[in-house]
Amino acid sequence: WNRYSSSEYGFYSNVNPNVDHPRWSQAKERRLGEIFTRNTVIFNGYGDQVASMYNGMDLKKFH
Predict the structure, then answer these.
(1) Alpha-carbon distance 13 to 55, whole Å?
(2) Which residue, 3, 34, 31, is CA-closest to 15?
(3) What is the pLDDT of residues 9-50, one digit of tens each?
């Protein structure tokens, strides 16, 4: 993805429901095989495991 659409996501990108993608909101998601949308969980639900890697970073700048 980085070679073909590097402007779509930042290098440190991970799903942040509080920061919109340039072309769509990340606040809701529809999982494969499901009909309804649900609220997106920050860092794809791995917040406890990966949040420390983002310590001190501006998560809006490095969306």
Answers:
(1) 14
(2) 31
(3) 666 667 788 888 888 888 999 999 999 999 999 888 888 998
**Quick check: 28 and 4 in contact, CB under 8 A?**
no
Cβ-contact 10, 52 below 8 angstroms: no
**Cα–Cα dist 29/17, whole Å:** 9
Give the Cα separation of 17 and 15 in Å (integer): 6
Return the DSSP state at 38: E
pTM to 2 decimal places? 0.67
